[in-house]
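We emphasize that the prediction below concerns an isolated chain of 302 residues; any contacts that depend on oligomerization or on bound cofactors are therefore not represented. The input was used exactly as deposited, without trimming of termini.
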Amino acid sequence: MKYALFLGCNIPARVSQYADSSRAVLKKLGVELADIREFNCCGYPLQNISQRAFLFSAAYNLAVAEKAGLDMLCLCKCCYGSLKKAEHLMNKDGSLQQEVNLFLAEKGLKYESKIKVKHLLSVLYHDVGIGNLKSKISESYTGSYKGLKIATHYGCHALRPSKITRFDDPVAPVLFDELVDITGAESVDWVGKLECCGAPLTGINDSLSMDLTKKKLANGKKAGAHYLCTACPFCHLQFDTMQKMMISHNGNEKHLAPVLYPQLLGLCMDIDKKTLGIKMNQLDISNITSFLTSGTLNDAKG
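Result of the prediction step, given as a C-alpha cell string:
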C-alpha cells in the first residue's frame, strides 16, 4: 500500500507530532507514504467566501495526486471533508468538472476521478484491517492498556455530510471505537461524543467555544475516561492548547488530556515516546505509559 500524504496547513506548523506518530505507525505496518511538495491548501478556509476558489484549490490537490497515481491519505478531518466535497461536486456535475479542468490545464493537470481521498483512520480500519493491526500489536506488545478508558472524539467533518464523506454511520459510528479497543484500552460510551469540540468558534466567539469544550470534557470525565482520543489537528488543538489556557485561567488542574490516535497505537506497537512526540503535547500524557507496566495511572489528575 502506498498513499500520497496530505498534511494540510496546520499539522506541520502546530501539531507536527501528529504527522511524526502517523509516519512511524504506518511504516511499521508496511504502508508507504509519498510526500508531494506540490500540494497546497485544501480550500477549506475559502468555502464561505468563494465556492469557485475553494473548488479550484481542492481540485488542484486531487489532480496532483492523480498525476502521481496515488490515493490521498489525510490526517486532518477538515482537509478530508473539503477534498471529499470537491470530489463529490465534480463527479456529480460534468460541466463543473469541465470548468475545473480548464483551470487545471493551465498548470498541466487534469482531474478524471481516478483516485480516492481517505482519512488515516479509514486506511487503518479498512485498508490495513483490524486483523493485521492486532497481529502487529501482539508481535511487540510487552504490557497492557487494560483498565485504561478512552473517550473517542469523532469530530464533525469526517462524519458529516455522510453522503459525501462516507466515513462511518453519522449517528452511531463504531470505526474509531474499534480502533481504540484493539489496543487493549476501553472506548467508553459518553454523552456528547459526536458534538463539536468548539474549535470553529475560537477567535469568533471564544466564550461559546470554551463552553462547548467544557461540556465535552465534563461528559468525558463523567463517563470515567482517563484521556480523550483525537485524530484531527483542529480538535486536538482545542482539547490540548485551549484546555491548557483554560486551566491557567481558572486554576483548575483537573483536566482530560487528549492523545492522538497514532500516539496511542504507536506506544503499544513498541514505538518510542520521542518518535511519537508524546512530550510535544501541551497537556502531559506521559502517564499513559504507566498502563503498559502497572495497569494504573501514576499520580493521575482529574
